[in-house]
Structure formats: structure tokens, C-alpha cells
Write a structure and sequence with these properties.
- The protein is α+β, with helices and mostly antiparallel strands.
- It has 13 helices and seven strands.
- Helix 10 (228-238) crosses helix 12.
Amino acid sequence: MSQRLFEASPVSRLGRCRAFVESLDEVEDLAGVRDVLLPGLAGLLAAHLAVYHEVDRRAGRELALGWPAEVYRAEFLGGYPSVMAQHPIVAYTMALPAVGEPLRTSDLVSRRQWQANPVYREAYHRLEVDDQIAFGATDDGSAFTGISLGRSGRAFTDWERDLVGLLSPQVGRALRRARRSGVAVPALQVAPLVVPTVMGGGGRHRASPTLALPSPRPATAEGDPLTAREREVLRLVAEGRSNARIGRELHLSPKTVETHVAAVFAKLGLAPHPDDNRRVLAALAWLRAG
């Protein structure tokens, strides 16, 4: 549809874009995001995949609402958590404000580099995503939300990037309205683990309990450099908990939690790096060791 939109007359282009913007009035909750906003935007851009993302930078936690559900499936994303930080767009938005100009994968890497990227090899080749375009809706520093669109074959053009830039304010308003709703919808947690969860509803997001995390190992485990308390902290990091939540659960002060987290990073050899999310890497280390 996007190519036909590009080739259509200016009046026809305007009409299709206007119809999409008008459809956003129907988006009152995250079910509307799933059923109206995502497929409408995908149709306008000839994308076969559209995803709404909620990302917590501090916890390295990402929740996603994908369309169509039969394409954005957990079994296609099993390797994603281990390589999330190497996604060009994710690395960029983890370090810088997400709200701004739309960003394409092809703005950051070549097609060959993208297909050699671990994210593509581990997950996105199954989704048949050869190029993505993404834009942010909200960003409070510790967390951000946004939309990504993916398609196979040809890359997104400059014209399509400009179109997304024009539409993003209206899309952002619809997303903010939807997030205030009390309606919860099924979704996926795609980092630090891939598990079913829910979005919306005004409560805490709860991941499915069907995937049990390993229990802390005994303090005497041979070759384990972590103390018992550090293992407890690491377990909660692996569950996607923030430092504040860890402090509440373990009855520790924020400063003490920060000290334990820093010690875990140091003992696991996770030095600060602009391209890495150390909480995600620490969670993966915990799971591998379990």
C-alpha cells in the first residue's frame, strides 16, 4: 500500500493519511492500539509487522504488543533477550531520548551489517524483517514507549520516514490516551525473558508464572564469586525488577541495593559500555548459571 500511496495523486495520499488519523479517535485503550492503530499504520507504510513497545532502561525490561499476533510470536523471539542491546535502534534509544525524528535500521547500518547482526540472526530473520522504522511516543528518562514497523524486501524510503514524522504526534496522543485506560490486553515480555504478560489495566504488569526462574544457589557453590545477598539481588534483576522494587522486597536501602548491583556487575566482569545494557547481561548470566 505504501508504494501505491507514494504513486497516488496528492489528493489521494492526503485522503488515506486523513482516514488513518481519523481512525485514531477509536483508540481508547491498548486493545484499540492492537486492533486499529498498529494495523492501520502498517497498512499505510506497507509493513507486515507493527509493534508497540514499553521499555524500562534501568531494568532492561521490554514489553511488546505486536500485530499481527500470528507473526509476532514468542517462539520467534526466543533468542532476542540475549542480543537485545545489539539492536542498532535499541542501542541508540537506550542511550538517547527516544522521542524525536523517526529512525530506520538502515539509517544506522547497511543491509549486510544488519543481516550479520546477532538480533537479525537470533530472531528477526524469522520475522522476515529486513528494515525497521521506529519512533518514540513518551520518554521520562528511565523508560520510554514507541512504535516500530518492519518489512521484508525494500528499505523504508526518506519519503516514508517523513510521513511517519508527520503522523507521530497524532499517534503519540492516541498512545498516551490508551495507556490511561483501565483495559488490560495480552502481550509479551520480550526482555530480559520472553514470557506472556499483560499491558494496561492500571496495575503492575505480571509475567506468566509458567516460566520459573532458578532459585539462588547455595553460598558454598564452588567457583561462585557472589555472596548470598548478591545472588538474591541478581535473581530479582533477572526477573526485571528495578532497584527500588529490589529494595522493598529485600528491605534494603536504595544505596545498599546500588552497592550490591555494582558488586554483581564487577564480579561478572560487566564493565560500563555505551553499547551494553548491564542489567540484561547480568540476567542472562544468571539464567545460564542456573
